């Protein structure tokens, strides 16, 4: 290595696996990116997307200065000009139309950015608008609702304790490709292999024989959207065959009798036809789950983004409880994050539970869940006139024009706004509609702590990445930008001293939470600022923290910084009842809202399968809509293909590489055909996040192979009624050859 060569550690911000990487640098140049073998959590794993960190840093299309739209064209602007423009445009809208006229949209990368995650609440408070939307309602809100009702806080999600498990039932998830979701588990492949080597078994339920199914012991096709029937068949069998064993959890659980009564009619024999899995298979799987000492059921996108998303998410954990595997070694366990987890805060063992439906959306009257409305309501809130209409929008690291159903309607709604601000690193399908774009930093220029994913991790740990490269002095960190917008919204002016404002807000917070000790804590946090200071505060007052010197051996940010490959905090430990925050202090196995929703299932018992339905698909070298501009990831075989079974291809007259028209009512897309028996007959699979052929973007690589937009086919009004999550899977379509 030359003199200036150095290695920086960085947690990869691209997906939930949060791999620890080593960035080899010479001056400002990135020479190489490798896995950090010493990383206490990911232990030398990475995937091909890691190289994207270099390409993203160097991407000439990535925005480096603010843009302001003048006479329909974007022009580069200074930060001061951009903030002044926001102030000039936003304040009159708030003054004239009120707080709810300003909506915000948060996208997926927010959960990988500590600055955005920790400072968005300050912007939300300053705006005071009920119109908050995020990618959660295209994703995991059904799981948040079910665990919220059962365990008392939105993110108390049990994850498989894979290193000690002997049986894993994976439903509607493909961790071999996605690298895990709501389950932070780098190197799923290695862990699955180790599991099988010690005699463990993995069974996958999916309408496609996925990469995960390939490394599993068994795979069963399931009719898309029919998981609820399968899961009810499993729960029925547990009672029918007297396999229910709550073990240690019996005294901490209420609602078992209600579940027994509710599932009586859902025999596997009745469910088989509807879900496509034979009754004896359902019974066999229930027995395996119940009789294997260390086992867990895990479900993800396929079980959430469908019309029974909340019921499926709930039943998965009902099974974990009834089989005695919840909160047990080798079962589905609750991580204990070192900072920020609601289930480690305040009084342990009980709490206020979760409350939803405090207000309803203006047009469709849908309830807020966890403080947000379904993102599929955004377009109607903008394009439906009347009091309370959304007139301004702030998008933060989100691309809903591609990621949400019926982007065409949303795109034209965005053009009707009086003002739109995008905090984004690209001029893309969504940010092209903005009046001002504020770019974030390259991930290599910012510090990182995993605020969210430590709450879903297969093992407890704490890691911190300092910035690998210095940022341009003129470029603020994202927490600073978002806080400045908050100050603007409060009428404090765009010129405010942001560090002083941050101090003042923290002082207020501390006075509320720590009372007399607040001045002392404030002093102890010196000289940190911004997001980093929030991390230090949360760590030191968290479950492993030094409690500001009361426990000198406890955790501080300095201790984590001194361990560049992270600190291991041990395997997951049983946490019930301590992790509960329900009002009863019990696991609420049978929340009324979920029991009531079974009426929909009863009414749907005999619905016949449509000729063809469409489902989504994720791919290793792609991440939602925004990594298609990175050459190393974009190259290779064409990926945005419509994958279907040879029998369907033959029946529909489709040929490999030919074009198919896919229709849903009057919506239509054209996609290239790929034929494979890995698909369940009657199901076509297409990735999402493509369709980079819209005008006015600056994505030169992505535009060369734009792909087609799956969401252009989907109906924004189809939702899981309980959670409001969009239905993205199992939608009936007509497929025909394009002649
Ligand atoms: N049909 C179908 N649709 C789906 C899904 C599906 O399975 N099927 N999946 C859904 C899921 S799970 C999700 S999470 C959503 C994702 O939905 P979105 O979050 O709306 O989409 P992304 O493609 O992740 O867009 C991320 C945006 O953040 C920007 N960005 C990236 N890094 C940064 C940064 O550091 N700072 C800032 N300010 N911006 C940044 C990118 O340029 C991009 O505009 O898509 C959903 N849509
Ligand atoms: N490489 C890569 N990794 C990613 C992402 C990415 O875009 N690319 N996105 C990230 C994000 S935002 C998320 S949320 C996670 C998602 O993580 P996962 O949920 O693991 O991701 P998917 O690959 O979408 O897996 C969903 C599976 O559900 C199946 N499926 C579809 N419909 C149904 C159904 O009705 N029932 C059942 N049982 N299965 C069904 C699909 O065939 C697919 O195999 O991945 C994250 N990681
Ligand atoms: S699996 Fe790949 S994209 Fe995900 S965190 Fe690891 S290196 Fe990054
Ligand atoms: Mo997601």
TrEMBL record:
Superkingdom field: Bacteria
Protein species of origin: Undibacterium parvum
Protein name (Swiss-Prot/TrEMBL): Molybdopterin oxidoreductase family protein
UniProt cross-references to Pfam families, sorted A to Z: Molybdop_Fe4S4, Molybdopterin, Molydop_binding
Annotated family: Belongs to the prokaryotic molybdopterin-containing oxidoreductase family.
Alphabetical list of InterPro entries matching this protein: Asp_de-COase-like_dom_sf, MoPterin_dinucl-bd_dom, Mopterin_OxRdtase, Mopterin_OxRdtase_4Fe-4S_dom, Prok_Mopterin_Oxidored
Taxonomic placement: Bacteria, Pseudomonadati, Pseudomonadota, Betaproteobacteria, Burkholderiales
Keywords (A to Z) from UniProt: Iron, Iron-sulfur, Metal-binding
Domain named 4Fe-4S Mo/W bis-MGD-type: residues: 5-61
PROSITE patterns: 4FE4S_MOW_BIS_MGD
SUPFAM superfamilies to which the protein is assigned, alphabetical: ADC-like, Formate dehydrogenase/DMSO reductase, domains 1-3
One GO molecular-function entry: molybdopterin cofactor binding
